[in-house]
Amino acid sequence: VCLADDMGLGKTIEVLSFLDKIKEEGKEKVLIIVPATLVENWKKEINKFAPHFSVFILKGENEPVDDRVKAYITITTYQTAIRLDYINRINWDLVVLDEAQAIKNYYTSQSKKVKSLNSKMRIAMTGTPIENNLLELWSLFDFVNPGLLGTRNEFSYFYNSIKTGSVIEKQKKLKSLISPFILRRVKTD
Fold first, then answer.
1. Model confidence over 131-181: pLDDT tens digits?
2. Residue 117: pLDDT band with limits 50, 70, 90
């Protein structure tokens, strides 16, 4: 899912609630990738709302050599994620991207690395699913649900043809494709 609520509406708490639910279902390995400035915020929110979760902060120099981390949640930064092979060796139950607009540029090594992770479920958290153009939306959905919007070239063709075809019909088609996978609340709701 793409959790695209406006800033300040509690995306982190929503995710923590979901993590509580899937833990009850026997899920054991969650990876949360965040900008470096949000690591402490995630630790505080977990301590406040889910203190029963075990957490491992993956910084790089503490990369597990035997691939066995006893924590339910592993938190790392985008910068650390692109450097470590460890996160690619694990079959994660869930990968969460906070500030997921960090992968909006599909061609960066950061985007490619994050999209290559093995996971059963994926959540992209962002208050801005589109900042500049629709290809950013494609890149987010290439992580959340690969193939849903076709390849980048197929989507580019669709995106470019919006300008020449019936804009309203194409926007409706795109919205119908992504709406089951996007949760969005705005502050005026």
1. 667 888 889 999 999 989 889 888 888 777 655 556 677 778 888 888 888
2. very high
Q: What does the chain look like in DSSP terms, one character per residue?
A: -EE-PPTTS-HHHHHHHHHHHHHHTT---EEEEE-GGGHHHHHHHHHHH-TTS-EEE--STT--SSS----SEEEEEHHHHHH-SHHHHSEEEEEEEETGGGG-STTSHHHHHHHT-EEEEEEEE-S-S-SS-HHHHHHHHHHHSTTTT--HHHHHHHHHHHTTS-HHHHHHHHHHHHGGGEE---TT-
What is the percent of the chain where pLDDT is above 70?
93
> 182 or 67, which is more confident?
182
How far is the C-alpha of 12 from the C-alpha of 18, rounded, in Å? Answer: 10
CA distance 66 to 170: 49
CA–CA distance from 157 to each of 88, 90, 150, 176 (Å)? 32, 35, 10, 18
Unique residue bearing structure tokens 């450097």: 83
